[in-house]
Amino acid sequence: MNLETKTTTKYTPSPIHRKFYLSVLWKFWLCHGLAFAWMIFSIILSIPWVKDLGELVPVPVAIAFITGIAYIPGYLNAFMVASLLFDRQPSFKTLHPKEPVSILIACWNEEKGIVSTLQQLAKQDYEGEMQIYVIDNNSTDHTAEVAERLGKELGLNIRVIFEETPGKNHALNKALQYVETQLLITLDADTLLHPQAVRRLVSRMKSAPEDVCAVAGAVLVRNSRENWLARIQEWDYFLGIASIKRLQGLYQGTLVAQGAYSLYLTDAIKEVGGWPDAIGEDIVLTWAFLERNYKVFFEPTAIAFTDVPTEFSHFARQRSRWARGMIEALKRVKPWEQPRIFTRYLTGSNLVMPYLDFVYTFVWIPGLIASFFGIFWIAGPQTLFVLPLALLSNYFLYRYQKGVFRELGLHIRKNRIGFFFYVLCYQMIMSPVSVWGYIQEFMQLRRVWK
C-alpha cells in the first residue's frame, strides 16, 4: 500500500485478556459450523432463483451455476470472516533477536530497483548480522556493479553471485549453496522493507514452535497513486491477500510463504530439495513444507512495500502466473496427502477455485451484462443485497489492519475510489485472468519469470 511513515515505534505487546480459551481445532470446527449455517440460509433464500433459472436450463445446471456464484463463495467468505473474528495473534516471546540471517535477492536487470531496496535494508533496526546475497540472474544491465557499490557506501555485508541459467529458482538455489546461517530471507529486488521488518519477522520465528519452518511477511502496495489499476490492487493487498494469509496463519498453514518477502529455516529448504522448477516456485515450496508436517506462519506487522503492475497486460501476466502456480502445487502435492486437517482443508479449497472462476467468467459476468438490458436470469436487483455483507466483512478487516499500522507508526492514505472499484469490480477482472492462467497451464505454454 502506498503509505507514509510518521514515526517508528518500538513494539510493546499488548496483553490479551481472555475469559476462556478455544483451541485452534475448536475454532476450526466452530467456524465451519457457522459457515455451514450461512450456506443453508442462502440455499433457502435462493429456492425461487433456482426455480426461475430452472425454466431456462435443466435444474441440475441451474444448481451448478448458483452453487458456483453463491453457495460455495458464501461458505468460504463466511468461514473467513468467522475465523478472523476468532484470530488472536500471539505476543512475541522475544523483541530483539540477534540471530544471524542471510537475505537472498534474485535479480534480473534491476540496477534501478535494487538501489531503494538496499537503502531500506541499511535502515533496519535488526541487531543481528545480516549477510546479503545479490544473485545476478544473467542481467544485461549493471545490477551487479550497482549492488557492490551500494554495499560499500551503505556499510552492508553484500556478496554478489552470478547465475547464468534463467529462472528465479535457479538463482535462489545457487545462493543457497553459500548460505551458512540457520535463517534466511528472500526479498524481491523491487520490494522495500519497513525499518522494523526484519526484526519482527525473525521475532515471530523465534517465538514460534519448533515445527514452524517459515514465516510469510506482509507485502503491501507502494505505487498505488500511479493509476486506477494500482489503486484497486492497493486494497487487494491490504484487505484481500492479507486477510487470507491471516486466516491461513490462524490454522498454522499459510499456503504461500511468498518469495517477495518471507523467512525460512535453511535446513527445511534443503530438506525439500530447494526451490522447485515451477512458475510458482514459492507456492510449490510452501506446500512441500506442509506435506512434511511443518507449519508456516504469517506475521502481519512485518511489512514490506512493493510496486504492482500498472499496465493491464503486466497485471494479467502476473495473476495468470499465480493461477498457474496454484495448479502446479495441486499437481505436485495432493491436498488429501497433507498430514494435518487444517492444511488438507486449506489446500483442498483451491480445488474449487477453477470451477468458481469459470462460472464467474462465463455465467455471472454475462448475466450481469444481460441485467442492464432487463434480462435478470442470473443477476437481478436482489444481487445488491450482497453488498452490505461485503462491506461489513471489509470493515472488520480494515479495523484490524488499521491497528497494525498504528502500531508501526504508519497511516493509511485515502483511496475511496479504489475501494469502490475493488468491492464492485475486482473479481470481474481477476476471474477471467485466472481462467487464462488455468488454460496456460493446461496447454503447458511457455513460462515467463517477469
Automatic annotation (TrEMBL):
GO molecular function: glycosyltransferase activity
Family: Belongs to the glycosyltransferase 2 family.
Stretches assigned to coiled coil: none
Matches recorded under Gene3D superfamilies: Spore Coat Polysaccharide Biosynthesis Protein SpsA, Chain A
UniProtKB keywords: Glycosyltransferase, Membrane, Transferase, Transmembrane, Transmembrane helix
Signal peptide per UniProt: none
Ranges that cross the membrane: 28-50, 62-86, 358-377, 383-398, 419-439
Xref: Pfam families: Glyco_tranf_2_3
Tagged with keyword Glycosyltransferase: yes
Organism lineage: Bacteria, Bacillati, Bacillota, Bacilli, Bacillales
Top-level taxon in the UniProt lineage: Bacteria
Identification of the protein by name: Family 2 glycosyl transferase
UniProt cross-references to PANTHER family, sorted A to Z: POLY-BETA-1,6-N-ACETYL-D-GLUCOSAMINE SYNTHASE
